[in-house]
Design goal:
The protein is α+β, with helices and mostly antiparallel strands. The protein contains 5 helices and 8 strands. The chain binds coenzyme A (COA).
Length: 171
């Protein structure tokens, strides 16, 4: 496939990205990035069509900086081709270059496909998986868990419609 990745922030000049967005979900992410200063994302182009996006934001809670992976979206026609992995990997590599924080927060709202995708990417990039240690959510109190534990939680969460919050950290 003829693929290209584009970094978009509220400061980038990217008319060629905007004019190639057909999908409304992708356009929605683009518009958020253009309105908000601490948001950015990676947009995936196939020929003349933008077919995928990530949306991330720098945040601080409990005196801890982290990057929130707020959204990952691949156009339905292109799913199941590992493009989620490609676009998440490009996003994390870009974050490493920006060098603000290596702690990434992800709220798993899309079930098993997104969980499998991010576990695979963060494993390849040597990040450890963490979750809140206590029921009271404190970003300073995180414990390391194994990928299989996150998958086990997801299987029971899906039945109860609970969204799992995970952190990925690289020391
Ligand atoms: C989640 C999403 C981005 C995945 O995109 P994708 O390009 O199809 O994903 P990939 O091809 O990279 O596959 C990632 C993993 O999910 C698995 N997967 C894909 N579709 C699946 C499904 N329907 N059920 C279970 N696993 C699935 C793949 O097998 C792969 O895992 P593997 O390597 O262990 O086989 C895409 O489905 C999407 O845009 N969904 C709507 C938005 C959404 O839910 N975003 C996440 C919000 S947190």
């Amino acid at each position: 496939m003829d693929l290209n990745f584009h970094y978009v922030s509220n400061r980038t000049l990217d008319k060629d990205v905007k004019t190639n967005i057909i999908n409304p979900d992708i356009l929605h992410n683009y518009e958020i990035i253009k309105k908000k200063k601490n948001y950015w994302g990676i947009f995936l182009r196939h020929k003349n069509e933008i077919i995928g996006t990530t949306l991330v934001a720098y945040q601080n809670k409990d005196n801890t900086d982290f990057l929130l992976l707020a959204s990952v979206f691949i156009d339905e026609k292109y799913r199941g081709r590992n493009l989620c992995k490609d676009i998440v990997k490009q996003t994390i590599l870009k974050n490493q270059i920006r060098n603000k924080t290596n702690l990434i927060k992800v709220v798993i709202a899309g079930g098993m496909p997104i969980l499998k995708c991010i576990i695979c990417v963060f494993k390849e990039l040597n990040y450890t998986i963490k979750k809140y240690k206590t029921k009271h959510e404190n970003t300073q109190l995180l414990q390391t868990i194994l990928p299989k534990t996150a998958i086990k939680f997801e299987l029971s969460n899906y039945d109860n419609d609970i969204w799992q919050t995970l952190f990925f950290d690289k020391k």
